[in-house]
Structures are given as C-alpha cells and as structure tokens.
Amino acid sequence: MNDVRPIRAKSGTNHEGTSAHNRRVMIDALRINGALSRADLARATRLTKQTVSNIIEELERDGLVSSQEAVRKGRGQPSTPYGLVPGGAFAIGLQIDRHVTRAVAVDLVGSVLVRAEAGLPTGGPSTGAKVILDLVAGVRSKLAGIVQQSEKRLVGLGVAMPGPFGMDGSGDDPWMMEAWQQFPLMETLSAGTGLDVGLQNDAAAAATAERMVGAAHGVDHAVCLFVGYGIGAGLILNGELYRGANGNAGEIGMALLFAGGKTTPLEHRASLASLYQHLSGDPADPDLHARINDLASRGDPSIEPWIEAAAADLRWSIHLIETIFDPQTVILCGSAPEALVNSLIAAIGPLLPSIAERPGRTLPRLQPGMADPWSVALGAAAGPISRAFDPRFAAILKDSL
Amino acid sequence: MNDVRPIRAKSGTNHEGTSAHNRRVMIDALRINGALSRADLARATRLTKQTVSNIIEELERDGLVSSQEAVRKGRGQPSTPYGLVPGGAFAIGLQIDRHVTRAVAVDLVGSVLVRAEAGLPTGGPSTGAKVILDLVAGVRSKLAGIVQQSEKRLVGLGVAMPGPFGMDGSGDDPWMMEAWQQFPLMETLSAGTGLDVGLQNDAAAAATAERMVGAAHGVDHAVCLFVGYGIGAGLILNGELYRGANGNAGEIGMALLFAGGKTTPLEHRASLASLYQHLSGDPADPDLHARINDLASRGDPSIEPWIEAAAADLRWSIHLIETIFDPQTVILCGSAPEALVNSLIAAIGPLLPSIAERPGRTLPRLQPGMADPWSVALGAAAGPISRAFDPRFAAILKDSL
DNA sequence: CTTATTAAGTCAAATGTCTTGACTTATTAC
DNA sequence: GTAATAAGTCAAGACATTTGACTTAATAAG
C-alpha cells in the first residue's frame, strides 16, 4: 500500500570523514615518497602546517609514524622527516588455492614476517575450514612471538581465492572450486578469528600486492595480468582496486577467444592449468613448480610451444587491456615460476600497436611483476592494510564506519 | 645538486570539501529518487536532520531546489518534498564531428532547451573554429532569450569529439581527425567563450548522457557501447566516468580482432563509417541518416550482411566487456539511426555466455540507449553539470578548487 | 663575528560545518 | 479528546581546519 521503494543515495560526510581522509593522505604520501617533513607534507597535501602537525602528532602517538634525524638543507630550521613505522600495523593474508593454502603476516610497509603453508584435504570446505583456521592461528601466534602487541595492531584478515564469485555452480567447470564458493567461508573465518575479513580474487590480490610494494607502487592506473592456475586481471583504476558490480571485474579467464579455428576460454590456453596439461604434470606435485622453472629457464623444447601459444594470447590480451583501460602500465605477474614469467615476457614482445604507444611515456608498456607463489597471500594481506590506510572515496563517507 | 624530486601526494580536504560533498550528495539523491523530504534525505545520506535542513535551505537560496506541496503520509507532521529546479543550472554541450558540429543548451535535469547545427568547412580548425564559436554564441544567446539570468547559471561548456587524444599524428589514419587533435581547441574555446571547458570523447559523452537521463540513470557500474562514425565505450565505474591515465579509456575502435582470417580494427567492422563504405554512401550526405534508418527498419537485403557481421563483433565485444568489467548492465547507444541500433540489438542476441549470467540480476544484460544524433551533444553538456553537481572523490579534495 | 634572511614548526584564537538534545508543529490512531 | 508519531527548528556544543603572529634554528653575506 504505502510506496516503500527504498531511497538510494550516497552517504554524506562530516569532520571524522575529513580527518580520516587527511590521515590516510599522510600515510599514503609517506608510503610513496618515503620519509617527509611536516612542511613537505603540508605542501604536498595542500593542508596547513598546523593541520599536518596535529595529524602527525596523532599518528606518532598511534605508533604509525616516527621521526627521523633532522635534516639540514640550506637556510632555515632543519626539518624533521617522519617515516612509516613498519610495525605500526599488521594484517594476515590467506590464499586458498586448489591444492594448498598459504597464510602470511605482513606489516604496514608490506614486509612478510611470517609464512606458513598447508595442503588442503580433498574433503572440501567442511574439513578444509579447520586446516585453514589452524593455519591462520599458527601465523598469528608466530607473529605475536616476534612482535610485541601485534594483536592490537592487527587490522584484518584478507582472503584471496580464485573467482569468479557468486555464480550458480554450473556443474561441470573444473576451474571453479565450487564447493568453496558455496561454503560460508567469510562467516566461518570471521567467527573463528574474530578479525575483519575481506575477500578478493587472486588476480586482484596480486594487483594489491604490486601496488603496495611492487611495480604499481605509486601508480594510479595499472592493470596486473596474473598468470596462476587460472588467469585474471587486477585493475588499479584511479589509485584503487576496481571490483566491478559484483566483485568479479578482471576475471578474464572466461573470456572467449578465437584461435586455431576454435573458440576457447583464455584460461584454457594461457594459465598454469593449461601448462600442466601440456606437460602432463600433476598439479599436486610439489616439485612441479621447480621443474617448470627449470624447463623455462633452459628454454626446453617441451615447454616452448606452450610459451609461444600463451605469449600470443597474452600479447593480444595486453593489446586489449591497453585499448580499453588506457593504463600507465601493464604488469605481468603470477604465481607462476619466475623464469616462466620472464620467458613469457620475452616471447610476448614486440607488443601489438595500440593507443599506449604515445609520446612522452614514462613507464614501460609491459613490466614484470612479482612471480612468487607467495605473492597472492601477500596481496591478500595487503587488502586490509589498504582498506585501513589508503585514501579512498569510501573511507570519507559515513556509511563506511 | 639538491634532490628536487617532486613529492607526490593526494590532496587533503577540509570543511569546505565536506560541505561540497554533502551538497552534491543531496542533489544526487534528488536526481535519482525524485523529490524527497528533509527527513528522507537525512535518513538516506546518514546526515542529521539539522544538517540537511541547512543544506537544503542553502540550495533553495541558490535556486537549485524548491519545495513542493506537503505530503500527508500517516501520523506525524506532513513532510515537504524538495525537488531539483530544472532551471537551476545550465550547460552548453558541443559536439565536433567530421562533417558537422552541434551545440545544445541543457538544464540541470538534462532537458535540451536549445539546439543548433552547422556544417564544418573543409578548411580544418583554422576556419572551423570560427564556425564553432559562432554556433556556441548562438545557442547561448537563444538560451538567454528563453530563460532569465541563464548566464549566471551556466556552469560550463562541454566538448565531445572523436578520440583518441594526445597521440602523435601517425599520418594516414583517416578516422583520426588529426588537424583537430593538434589544434589548441580547448584554449580557443575557453578564451572565446569565457566558460570552463571540458573535453570528452564521443563515447564518454554518450555514457554521461545515459547516466544523467538515460538507461544508466542511477546505475553505478555500466558500460555504454557507442556506435557512431567510429565505435567506443563509455565506462561508468563506481558511479563516475572513467577516463584512464590519458583520457582515452574506452577507445576500443582500435582494438584488433581476428575475423574472417584477417586482423582488423573493430572500428573498420562495426561503425557507421564501415556501414557507409558498405553502402557506398557519402558521409556528408544529409539524407543518409534517414535512408539508413529506412533500410534498417525494413530489414533491407543491402544492409543485412553488414548488420550480421557488426552484430557478431558487438556480441563478442559485449562478452568481453562483461567479462572484464562485471558491470550491472551494458547499454548499446549511438549517433546511429534508432532503427539500426534496434536491428543490431535484435541481431546480437542471444548473448554469449559470460559471468553476467548470474542469479538475481535486476537489470538486463544489454539495453538500448539513446540513438539520436544529438545524444553526444547532450552528453557533452552533461559533462560540466556532472562535474559541478555529482558526488565525486575529486570534488572533496582541496586541489579541485 | 655579527646580522639578515630563510624555512620549520608552534601557539592560541577564529572559523566553518556537523552534531546533539530539547522543543515545536502537525497529523493520525485510538 | 488525548496519546502517539513524525517532520522540522532552535540554540548550544563539538570538532577539525585555518589564520596570523611568534619561536627556533640553520645558512649567507658583509
């Protein structure tokens, strides 16, 4: 009867939003530029010296920044630079993959302090959940053994797992890890750890890692092509990870492409899964990673055809990404062995012509990123840190609190 | 000697940023929901009743909103809804295309009040600039004849023209309108009109129009596929137009695709330019638009093969867009005749499987948008209005002022 | 060696915007 | 007719930034 259409509106903001933003801007500036004096911060952020002083004082009290030795540079009172305190905050990152799960503890500047790994039982989430909770608990207690008061400075638990999320299990796609998708993992983890839990797909996590400590550091428009068991893209747009309407942006593994007379998903052609198949390797074999690294670094004939084919697909993907996003740079990273990523980059060149061939470029069109099985877990941990400390539109609004 | 690396940091914010944001949030809420009472606004924006009262009072004083008749709905004091005043602000939109230039005057709610068109002389920018300035001046004075005080409420001049921008003229691409790209158009227009001038490519303008008054109204994640003389995509991400690092995001006309054994740019296959070529039509022929509309609505054999081929490419483009962006909806619009767009949409279906086939969708995967030669000019005008009144991260920051 | 200049940083008061809690007004429900 | 409910106002308060004068500490110049 009564017309109860919900009213849609963006949230307003207030002093706290302002202050939160300014704090984040300071931290971001110190992360990008290294230690800066209050005067430098005031100029860079367009805030007044006084405001900067107040905020820095507060951040110092919170243990997030600390003063360094005064620097004399010409006339005038020497400046006192302030830098981020690595131990100012920590996050736990958790990667859930097909066969293994990895957890790390990471600090404010992205250093990995603790890492732990465990095999995932075949029983699926019901038995896997316990393994995961134990793994997280182990990392957490190890962290507590290394750093005093780490629990107080723990900002959250970031989880990375293969997407896409929120789909109906269509039954027969072996890449989807359906059982895990159905399981109320976030709730279980949240209840089991008492931490704030956030979820990303693995490509997004890799991009988050690259932005915090890798090739995308300080870059506001970058796309990370992530070659893992599947393939995905992590989108850094306007300095933030873009998630799309349902958190599935960048899940390009399902992109159909025509090649060799057939239409196949990209994931079936340029991913570790496809390489394993090409090599008839068992994904659960713990030596496979090293073996592939070896094959790739030697340019072994058994792997060359796959590299050529995958490189062709990636070359075209990069072309498309440059054309659609107009990014400053594209980063190729993966949980793949480093030698493989390097071989791929070598085989991809020269890049296809695109809008990215512009005069006055400062960054290379294509850069190697992290190629490390642990980079996804690192990125998972980078998620909560970014949410807590990076300047973001959402952080200003009242409904973010 | 002195290390003068520039310090990079995001801008801080202050009370004015807060206030500006809250004003924008109110306007946005009224635009999306229609007239709302102060109490409704307070609930929706999470601000207090008092704050909303203050801001509404100020907006009313500024002539941007006005009260409507009180509404009784159950117990309690009747509420007084406030709605946007269409005449609260105006903007001029200018489309510069290959053969014609169009200018419109648009109000706060996106109604076109004045429209004017002129042919562009072949002499290029040097002679064209005068034509354009005259056109804008004409629209402006007609607007002044219709509305009192329109000049005071003019927020800017939005320009839309085919991209990409900022490329070296590579010499032989007939689609690039190089001479116009080289010409300091923004400066000329800014100096010639005294208005704030902003530039978008035509697909971005179309998307801006769809967001203000079309299918993307109130939608925060949408991609507009724009079929015009060329083809492009306008990206609405997180409720804002995404421009990329160099303002060229969405310029997918240059995307290479394999089809029929050849690699060709999308633009050469699915664009009015390609249709003109297919039909051996002269783009400068003023009757061409109507003729194509007629052919398309009759399903004429002369146009069917082109429609089939273009639909196949668009189908695949939509698949890719859904896969990469995970939008709420894709909108097909264009400066193409409406019947052509409808034929294309009919021919595109059924869509390729993608991540967009999710349970619980509320919007269709593909929707028709505006198909009107004037929609780009409208979108051009929507640019300044959006910049002036929509909630945006950049609007909160100090360096936006 | 003294003084002027420059720049970093602090102090205290002022400003601007949102919040709080009590109050008024207007309507329906009982 | 009275109680309950909801919209909206009032005036004081809280909070973060700004302003402008001041202090501190260095180099440059004579």
Description:
The structure is a homodimer of 401-residue chains. Chain A is α/β, with parallel strands linked by helices. Chain A has 3 domains: 15-84, Arc Repressor Mutant, subunit A; 89-207 and 378-389, ATPase, nucleotide binding domain (Nucleotidyltransferase, domain 5, 2-Layer Sandwich), CATH 3.30.420; 217-372, ATPase, nucleotide binding domain (Nucleotidyltransferase, domain 5). Helices cover 40% and strands 20% of the residues of chain A. Chain A has 13 helices and 15 strands. Chain A has a 5-stranded mixed sheet, sandwiched between helices. In chain A, helix 1 packs across helix 3 and helix 9 (288-298) runs parallel beside helix 11. Chains A and B meet through helix 1, helix 2, strand 12 and helix 10 of A and helix 1, helix 2, strand 12 and helix 10 of B. The first copy, chain A, binds a DNA duplex (30 and 30 nucleotides) through residues 12-16, 18-19, 22, 37-39, 47-54, 70, 72-80. Chains A, B: Residues 1-22 are annotated as: Disordered. Chains A, B: One of its GO terms (biological process) is N-acetylneuraminate catabolic process. Chains A, B: One of its GO terms (molecular function) is N-acylmannosamine kinase activity. Chains A, B: Pfam families: MarR_2 (PF12802), ROK (PF00480).
Tally of discrete structural domains of chain A: 3
Secondary structure tally: strands of chain A: 15
The spatial strand order of the largest sheet of chain A comes to 6-5-4-7-8
Q: What is the number of helical segments of chain A per DSSP (H or I, 4+ residues)?
A: 13
The pLDDT mean of chain A sits at: 91
**Helix/strand/pairing category of chain A:** alpha/beta
H and E order of chain A: HEHHEEEEEHEHHEHEEEEEHHHEHEHH
Give the overall form of chain A.
globular
Gyration radius of chain A (Cα, Å) is 22 Å
Please give the CATH architecture of the largest domain in chain A: 2-Layer Sandwich
**Residue ranges of chain A: pLDDT <50 for 5 or more in a row?**
171-176
Largest sheet composition of chain A: 5 strands, mixed
Q: Using a beta-carbon cutoff below 8 angstroms, give the protein chain pair with the largest interface and the number of residues from each chain.
A: A-B, 77 and 77 residues
What is the CATH third-level topology name of the largest domain in chain A?
Nucleotidyltransferase, domain 5
Helix content of chain A: 25-40%
The named CATH superfamily of the largest domain in chain A? ATPase, nucleotide binding domain
In quaternary terms, these chains amount to homodimer
| CATH class annotation of the largest domain in chain A | Alpha Beta
